[in-house]
Amino acid sequence: MTIDWFFILEKLVLISGVLAISLVVAMYSTWGERKVAGIIQDRLGPNRAGFMGLLQPLADGGKLFFKEEIIPGNSNRFLFILGPSLAMIVACMTSAVIPWGDTLTIAGHTVSLQVADVNIGILYIFGVVSLGVYGIMLGGWASNNKYSLLASIRAASQIISYELAMGLSLIALLMMTGSLSLKDIVEQQRHDGWNVFYQPLGFLIFLVCSFAECNRTPFDLAEAESELNGGYHLEYSSMKLGFYLFAEYINMFISSALMASLYFGGYSFPGMDSLGLSPNLVTILGTAALFVKIICFLFFFMWVRWTIPRFRYDQLMRLGWNIMIPLALANMLITGAIVLYRSTH
Amino acid sequence: MQALTSRAKQVDRKPMTFIEKIYLWNIIKGMWITFKHIWKRKETVRYPEQKRPFSPVFRGLHILNRDAEGRENCTACGLCAVACPAEAITMEAAERKPGEEHLYREEKYAARYEINMLRCIFCGFCEEACPKDAIYLTETFAPANYKREGFIYGKPDLLIPAPGEKKKA
Q1: Domain range for residue A257?
Q2: Do residues A242 and A233 make contact, with C-beta atoms less than 8 angstroms apart?
Q3: Does the annotation list B110 as a binding residue?
Q4: B150 assigned ligand-binding residue
């Protein structure tokens, strides 16, 4: 058996590229968040470090690295370190199945801009995202602190509750597309138009649930500073705290990419096939289009954060179980009926 | 009941309507409000480069004045110290020796003159009390310091530079 060295090289380059891009995007999301917060509140936001404060994330990261590392005496040392590592690894893993673009043709080889086109892509994402809660749970538990534990329990029950509605809203989408592969879903949208027009309610439910999954305002009860002294990462310092915060931003980036791919056509853009340009150029333009969509979603995440106050915990649970899940079920039923009607007529 | 201000608003305790119950419409309205703020004028003053102007009656750090020939005006009469409600001013008087006429305007002068900027409330009473136009409040404020002693300003800190003399930083 011959080893296809080009294949291995291609995947290695792609994996490191995707990892680097998600880290850089997450880094600059922290800058973007503060800038958006400032602008919405009639301030300027960070503007000291470098041009428009663009070096701010580097300064923050450097500061976190040099901070004293404190591990509480009565904590479980292994789990305490495992928590943030798990949060970070899980956040980075999801990017593997997202199609970042169509295929490029380099020196006769066809290179797909997707690390792994598995036919259970969405299932994989759900599996990995559900693992994300362990990072928070372990961190909160290992801290041996009541507030951290409370916050991590909150986070766990919140994520489990909203994962249900999220999955149900996706089932309606899958009934329509008939595929679990993200690449197939994007390719379908390339020809038939964006899914958001066929599944507006499903998209809304997915959007709200992804806010809850990312622990973002208005569902940031896991880090409700006013009630919990900071949340599940209360005992963390130095880069371990940085990992938790960073994982949140990577999750945001991945959710944005996922929403763009599932509902907004991913790397396809209107008029993509009628431009008459070389396929490689169209692929690059498509990837750029995907990133424009992602940035719009990131901005939307931040915009919501600086507009809407936090839900109370009982309101959060009621919204999840009494409103989101029935709505998602109804959406599923309607979609199923329409799909059945279409297939028989 | 008479409202205390013209801006008082009665609390609306009507049950929420359907539109209000589904949150979504009100969330969109709120998002539109924050969105509009993107184009509003930014209030930030970029401090070291840009300074907010003080009001014309601003009272800041003190200076000790000299007359037109560069001689110190202060005669250590102590009226400023008496007027000071915070008791921030101390001084020691000394007699002018022959040959020092170019330094001090009158026969008596302040050998030591200290203002504790941590006690001072910048009321300006010293300025009003001074019969010799010797003490004035300026438009700057005391810079930060690491030690309490650093806030006790002596004569070298307070005196304005004599003509032809550079003030030490």
Answers
A1: 67-103+114-344
A2: no
A3: no
A4: no
The single residue listed with the structure tokens 């892509």 is: A121
| A89/chain B closest Cα distance in angstroms | 33
Q: What is the pLDDT of residue B1?
A: 65
Residue span of the structural domain in which B153 resides: 62-158
DSSP state of B51: -
Q: State the nearest Cα–Cα gap between A304 and chain B, in angstroms.
A: 7
Nearest to A43 among B27, B34, B44 (CB): B44
Domain count of chain A? 1
Residue A153 CA to residue A162 CA, distance in Å, equals 14
Distance from CA of B31 to the nearest CA of A (A): 6
Before A279, cis peptide (omega within 30)? no
User: ipTM score of the complex?
Assistant: 0.78
* pLDDT tens readout for residues A238-270: 888 888 888 889 989 999 998 998 888 888 888
In a mutagenesis test of the B interface, which of A307, A315, A322 is the best target, namely the one with the most B β-carbons within 10 Å?
A307
Q: Is B40 annotated as a binding residue?
A: no
Is B41–A42 a contact, with Cβ atoms under 8 angstroms apart? yes
Give the residue among A72, A197, A65 at the shortest CA–CA distance from A142.
A72
Residue B27, annotated as binding a ligand: no
pLDDT by residue (tens digit) across A176-212? 888 888 888 888 888 888 888 888 888 999 999 898 8
The tens digit of pLDDT for each residue in A258-317 reads 899 888 888 888 877 777 778 888 888 888 999 999 999 999 999 998 898 888 888 888
3-state secondary structure of B66: strand
The answer to the question of residue A43 being in a domain is: no
Report the domain count for chain B: 1
- Contact of A312 with chain B, judged by CB distance below 8 Å, is answered with no
pLDDT at A198: 86
